[in-house]
Amino acid sequence: MSNNDDKLPPKHHEKKALQAPFVDLGGGVLAEEVYRNGTAVFAVWHPDTQTVTYEDQVCVGGKVFYPRQDEAIEKETVILATGAALNCPTTEELIDKIKTTIHKYVDVSPEFEEFAAWYVLLSWVHDMLNTLEYLRALGDYGTGKTRLEDVVGGLCYRPIFVSGATGAAPIFRLIEQWKGTLIIDESDFTDSTEHALIIKILNMGFEKGKNVIRCDSENYDRLHHHGVFGPKIIASRRTFDDQALESRCLTETMTPTLRTDIPVVLGKSWEKERAEMQELLMAWRFRHRAEIEQPESIELGQGLEPRLRQASIAFAALFLKSEGTMTRFKEFLRNYQRDLIEQRSTCVDGIVVKAIHDLVVEDKEQWDNEGPLITSSDISMLSGGESDRTIGKSLRSLKLASRQRRANNKNAKYLVANKEGLCRIFRRYILDCFDCIDCLECYAAWGPVAEAGVAANVPISTIHDETNETNETEKVNGTDPQPQAAASRNPSATSPSGKKPTGNLQIDTAWSEYQGTAKKPRPRVPEGELKHMSPAARRAWKQLAG
Question: For 383-396, how does the pLDDT look when each residue is reduced to its tens digit (9 = 90+)?
Fold first, then answer.
């Protein structure tokens, strides 16, 4: 007989298979396992009298169920509530209490603080949902990842702390036995095989009904189907290589805190506060679980990415009957989406997309029937001199391509893309495009369309009018625009190359400097910093140096 068996009363030995941490007794009567005075019992909710009783066993359908008796409770691998509060706050009041508790012990952004509070509440009714995203703390050691897991995870429904697990096998069983919130530090699993199993758990655990199937180690004909659905809080030092898993994480990038009001260690006061909050959350679960129904779709506002929209549907299930909270939630989602775009715009892909956007929207590059007449050199010029290899890798990750074709009297590898596809990419990486309502109106302002192979260069003379805005700016800044004007009025004036001048002092100066190194390869970012020039000046440079 195992050690766990020794702790069971005699009657439990026959009914061990019917141990459960939660039993739905029907008619709204719920039995939740709690840990009171060193003993596991059921807290039974009676909706007709709005009362809670504590019982050693419950019976339904002729079967007797007992609370799970496990060493995991005593060792605090699994943390159970101590009961249910007599008075239950409203959903809005409870959200505010959770946020206050998180803020007291953890330093995170206000947006993530609010999202974490909603996630805590959502974990207490996750068994009524079909899909559920994960919370993740991303950062190096010493940035507060473990503190976030302890505090946010400690408030969640039946938290399961598995950082001390020696492999994936115990995790499978803990999730199945307790059906709670998994708190896991991915960096604890350095073995490649075990790490792959952890990734499998995370990949399958976001949707109800997705099981991890494994063979019995002693009998390969016997299969074990492990249900791993449930809320999860993850700590990690780096992003996941698996993009599907990466898209299921609501991530906070952690940094060392500068706040001095956060306790250095979590002591008895935290344990007491956690127990009080869990009792309030248990009372809320009893009263609101039956109301939770995850909608198949819901209007959450324009422009949200599919990943964020899918994650938000589960959260929206909390607020369907509260118009004020739903409005607040939608505004939060919009701000969160804007933050994601701002963060994304600083990566290499974001810099490349910004360069393409400037070439298409500001420089009004011509199009042929396959896409805009933009080369890697054009992108490099506006992206700070990124190499062709880096740009090519970025284009592939963006699902864009380039193809050799003839235009502007030369053969080159031009971008292959349509306007609708580029608009979707711009919305993902450029904040101004996120607020765009009418894409057709934007298309009309983009560059002209020309047939492949016959697109003509824009005459240099047409640039004079387009540089008026630049000249006005120079006049305000104290720079005399007269040299440009004089050059444009004198048709016989020529640039050092013998070509007619552009009428723009900035570009003519850069061109003059470039002529001194005409036998050398064209520099990635010529002197004069072309990426800071006006669109008209950049077009003139490309014509002169092309």
Answer: 777 888 898 898 98
